[in-house]
Amino acid sequence: MRILILASNYPHAGHSFSGIFNERCAAALREICEKVEVIVPRPYVPSILASFVSRWQVYAQIPPYEVRNGIPVNRPAYLQIPWLGKVLSFDRSAYLFSRHAAMEMHRRIQFDAILSFGLEAGGLAWRLGKVLNIPACGWATGGDVRVPAASSSGRIVINTLKHLDLIFYQSSELLEKAAELLGTSPDRMPYGRHTVLPRGIPIPPVLQSKQIRNRVRSALGIPDAHTLVLSVGRICREKGVYELLQAVALAVRQNPQITCLLVGAMPALDETPMVQKAVNQVAELRNRVRILPACDPERIWEYLHAADIFAFTSHREGMPNSLLEAMAAGVPSVAFSIPAVLELEAQTGALLLVPPFDVASFADAILRLAASPEERLHLAARGKTRVADGFVVEKNMTKAVQLIAQVVQRKKESLFMEKSINGCSQREEY
């Protein structure tokens, strides 16, 4: 199988962790498929403007082409000057500026199918699929289907849902959202085109847990007697960072030996300055909360080995990859019971669930786990089993390729039938 991957974000020099799970899925596909290449349209930024705004500086650092971990990544520039806002919709603009590159790549490689990570790139996928005359598939990952049907974004997604040959959904909730956009119900959406399949995460590396725990804690000045609560992800309101701070403040008042680590800060692109200000203003947090920069994904496993509890306070998710990683690493986790988390937990006891946005209950959950090493061990074991059962990227990408292969075969049979019918018609006319 030769697959052309499309994505709206992918790691690059200016932002090494943007779209990191897209890259991980591409790496898994590379091991399964004969050939994998990637197209990630990049917004055009005039060089004279790049020095004025930090976000523009990040865009300006995106290379037009590179090979990352053995996978060619093409980044054609499309007309989307940041300070002008969305002058053109991403799907149409990216298509106009990516079409030639995709045709040249297809001429050289002869792709069997297109796969988009995120329905933002799905509009580009089905348009290119028509031009290249190959099936176009896509993954609904989260916010891409959480749009009002009457909005411009909603209309683009509806059009994409109607045109893609196969659509994967990270969770059943996202399938329900897609059904709402299409004005139908999930049970009326054909399984052959719409299927729930989480992308999953890589199998955790084998590390010397105790030595890493001691080294990381020593470097951060965290005593071994302290309970370390870890959160990994973007530092922003949507990820529940303010609820987490409130919960930690309540917990520290009862147990001063609780320390919280927030990993993922990118001040040019998130709310780190405001969150740091909030930490500094609360006495219970000032010496108990540390905010660390976003880091190499392999470094995350080390932080996980140093942690006692993983805290997940996100407001909404397609499928929470950072939580999956914590569970896979054997870190007992407490999380708001948003739909994707409920689907992940699935009444297995793999997570300690808290009603969404209930700060007091989240604080109680932290205190409960901090006081019970035995419960932490049970949660850790069940969490590892749950992830291994259905959320490993290598297994799930293999299943995706099998389903894509069926679509490719149906497409070939359809084209063969069309040629046969056209040939018969021509002979009859003759």
Short description:
The chain is built from 16 helices and 16 strands. The chain has helices at 20-32, 54-60, 90-109, 122-132, 152-163, 172-181, 209-220, 241-254, 272-280, 283-286, 297-306, 321-328, 339-345, 359-370, 373-390, 393-429, and strands at residues 2-7, 35-39, 42-43, 65-68, 71-74, 77-78, 113-117, 136-140, 166-169, 194-196, 227-232, 258-265, 289-293, 309-312, 333-336, 352-354. The protein has an eight-stranded mixed beta sheet, sandwiched between helices.
Describe this entry's structure for a reader.
With 430 residues, the protein is of the alpha/beta class. It folds into 2 domains: 2-200 and 394-418, Rossmann fold (3-Layer(aba) Sandwich), CATH 3.40.50; 209-390, Rossmann fold, CATH 3.40.50. The protein is 47% helix and 16% strand. It contains 16 helices and 16 strands. It has an 8-stranded mixed beta sheet, with helices on both faces. Helix 8 (241-254) links the parallel strand 11 (227-232) and strand 12. Helix 3 crosses helix 4 (122-132), helix 8 crosses helix 14 (359-370) and helix 12 crosses helix 15 (373-390). The radius of gyration is 23 Å and the shape is globular. Mean pLDDT is 91; it is low at 82-88.
